[in-house]
Amino acid sequence: IAVMKFQIGEKVYVKRIGGDWILSEILHHKELENGDAEFYIHYEGFNRRLDEWVYSCRIISTEEFELEEQKHGSNKIYDITNKKMTRQQKRKFDEIHHIQKVLSILIFLVASRHGPYNSIIGKGV
Question: Which residues form the Tudor-knot domain (predicted)?
Fold first, then answer.
């Protein structure tokens, strides 16, 4: 049985998509098949509709955050965790945030604009 690193109701810092660390509260917890854990969190001061499931690699304790802030200062940009997402985590992240769909649309638009036939079409033939 895996031991939960964080408890439900605990205040932690969560790294948001933009890279900011936001004080959050853990609402739920679930163990994944690969042994990792996901936590359903609420960002303090944000609308509840922004609550989301996040992997444990994006969460740090308030103590760890404050220690790093003292070391590096609050004005400097730093990365507390240097853990990388696993392939499964990246796939799920991309799926949730529709990265693949957006990427395929961009590739199509670029290809249609700079395709091999545009030189013929673009010259009014």
Answer: 6-59
